[in-house]
# Entry
Amino acid sequence: MGFADFLSDTGLTTLCKVLNSWLTTRSYIVGYGPSQADVSSFKALKEQPSAAKYPHAYRWYKHIASHQSEFSSLPGDPSKPYTTYGPEKSEVTINPKDAPTEAEAEEEEEDDLFGSDDEEEDPEAVKKREENLAAYKKKKEGKTKPAAKSIVTLDVKPWGMSFTLPSVQLTNMYTL
# Structure
C-alpha cells in the first residue's frame, strides 16, 4: 500500500499518523541510512509534522532536512513516488466513509483463536481438582520443615615458616 496522499489536509493528518507509526521503530523509510525513499517522502510533505502529535515523524523530518544538500547523491531510485514506500497495510483509514463500523470492529475483536472463552469447566473436573487440592493441603499440614542450618569451620594456620615455642622464647630473650 505505501504512504497515502500527503497533499490534502486530511491526507497530511493520515500520513503523519502512518509515518509516525512507521518511524516508531525505524530511523529511515527504507534501510539503515538516508535514501531516495526518504527524499521523495520528505518532498511530498507540505509542512513539518507537529512535534507534540507526531514525535517520530518530527524527528525523521528534522534529520532528513539536515541532508538536503546531499539529496541528489543519496542511493535509490529518485523516479519512484513516495506512495511506493511505507507499510504494506495501514491501520489508519484513508477515507473516513470506508472506516469499519463498530459491529465489524467488535466482530474482529471477538475472534478467539483458542476457544477458551466459550468453554465452561466440567463440574466433575472441578470437583476432582478441589479434592486433590484438599488432600495436598492436608498432607502438607502434617509435615514440618526442619530449620536450615549452616556449619562454618574456620581453620587458621600460619603462613610460611613454622615456629616452635622454645625458639620463639629464645629470640624474644635476646631482643630485650
In short: The mean pLDDT is 75. The helical segments are 9-22, 36-44, 55-65, 102-109, 123-142, 165-175. The two ends are 100 Å apart (CA to CA). The longest helix spans residues 123-142.
